[in-house]
């Protein structure tokens, strides 16, 4: 079997996203230490929207006029930004950054399944289905026996893990929808999407959290700014570029590889100690990518 050949530019985009999104779990964990989830999400998306909109206009480009052209951006903003950002941030109040990154590895497996029904040429073969099942077993192992029983003292932790997993599923749907409905200039699409997302989450944060009454630590405030600039603003542009160039199934490999970054930073920077079962779960998930993304060598006749 041989790996699917891709141009170097696709791999460079992929690795850049791995670094930014893999580190975002650590910064999320730092941010929620002294800030509520909605405020973290609103700050992150708000900073990203300001940065990208400023860049769009500085480059002489313009956002679409009000009207139906904004409908695709609104859909992606809800499914790909507002909902998953909140679910993951809320879950990380309990879930360690390393484990959150590992749980996100479910995203490419779900993307493979969705792409089969929605994207021409990305069929769910027996090989990909096998990879999906191996990865799913890894997720079950990560969440532990208590997740299957659904009872016990770990109930809050299980719900938090499910929230992170729900964010991963939202990202999977976003990957497929982006390929189908987002057209035009990449930078404009990224800025428009984040602008819509900010209009959704900022009012919610103002209403629920009253952020002007909060006293965040410097570390939390800095983490929110960084999350907005790199893992959100810059990463959104790279994300749209990679989706168009290589398709959602390849882009989804980010979430197979980013758990390694999340685990490394969790161990080296945050001092986290994931359970042994987490590593076995990660190994199964990585086996899923090996099975689902490799193809047989062509026969020589």
Textual characterization of the structure:
The chain is mostly helical and 301 residues long. The chain has one domain (2-294). The protein is built from 13 helices and two strands; from the N terminus they run E-H-H-H-H-H-H-H-H-H-H-H-H-H-E. The protein has a two-stranded antiparallel sheet. Helix 2 packs antiparallel against helix 3 (71-91) and helix 6 (126-143) packs antiparallel against helix 13 (276-293).
- How large, in whole angstroms, is the Cα Rg? 19 Å
Number of helices: 13
Average pLDDT level: 81
Overall 3D form: globular
Number of domains: 1
Calculate the terminal CA-CA distance, rounded to whole Å: 17 Å
Instruction: Describe the sheet with the most strands.
Output: 2 strands, antiparallel
* Class from secondary-structure proportions: mainly alpha
Secondary-structure element order, as H and E? EHHHHHHHHHHHHHE
Strand arrangement in the largest pleated sheet:
1-2
Strand percentage: under 5%
Secondary structure: number of strands? 2
Low-confidence stretches: 147-153, 297-301
**Proportion of helical residues:** over 70%
What's the topology here?
Elements (H helix, E strand, L loop, with lengths): L1 E2 L4 H24 L5 H22 L12 H21 L5 H7 L2 H13 L7 H18 L1 H5 L5 H27 L4 H24 L8 H29 L1 H4 L2 H15 L7 H18 E2 L6
Antiparallel strand pairs: 1-2
Question: How would you summarize this macromolecular structure in one to three sentences?
Answer:
With 301 residues, the chain is an all-alpha fold. The protein has 13 helices and two strands, in the order βαααααααααααααβ. It has one domain.
């Amino acid at each position: 079997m041989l790996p699917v050949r891709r141009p170097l530019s696709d791999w460079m985009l992929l690795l850049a996203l791995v670094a930014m999104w893999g580190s975002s779990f650590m910064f999320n964990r730092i941010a929620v230490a002294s800030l509520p989830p909605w405020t973290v999400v609103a700050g992150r998306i708000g900073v990203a929207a300001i940065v990208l909109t400023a860049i769009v206009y500085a480059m002489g480009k313009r956002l679409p006029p009000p009207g139906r052209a904004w409908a695709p951006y609104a859909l992606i903003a809800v499914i790909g930004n507002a909902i998953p950002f909140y679910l993951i941030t809320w879950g990380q109040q309990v879930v360690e950054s390393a484990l959150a990154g590992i749980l996100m590895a479910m995203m490419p497996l779900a993307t493979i399944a969705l792409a089969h029904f929605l994207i021409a040429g990305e069929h769910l073969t027996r090989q990909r289905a096998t990879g999906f099942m191996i990865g799913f077993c890894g997720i079950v192992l990560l969440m532990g026996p208590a997740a299957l029983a659904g009872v016990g003292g770990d109930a809050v932790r299980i719900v938090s893990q499910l929230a992170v997993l729900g964010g991963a599923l939202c990202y999977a749907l976003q990957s497929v929808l982006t390929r189908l409905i987002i057209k035009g200039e990449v930078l404009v699409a990224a800025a428009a999407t984040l602008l819509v997302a900010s209009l959704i989450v900022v009012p919610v944060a103002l209403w629920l959290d009253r952020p002007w009454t909060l006293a965040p630590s410097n570390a939390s405030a800095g983490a929110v700014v960084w999350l907005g600039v790199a893992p959100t603003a810059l990463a959104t542009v790279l994300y749209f570029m990679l989706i168009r160039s290589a398709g959602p199934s390849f882009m989804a490999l980010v979430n197979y590889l980013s758990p390694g970054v999340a685990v490394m930073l969790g161990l080296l920077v945050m001092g986290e100690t994931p359970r042994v079962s987490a590593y076995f779960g990660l190994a199964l998930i990585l086996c899923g990518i090996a099975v689902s993304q490799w193809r047989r060598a062509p026969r020589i006749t």
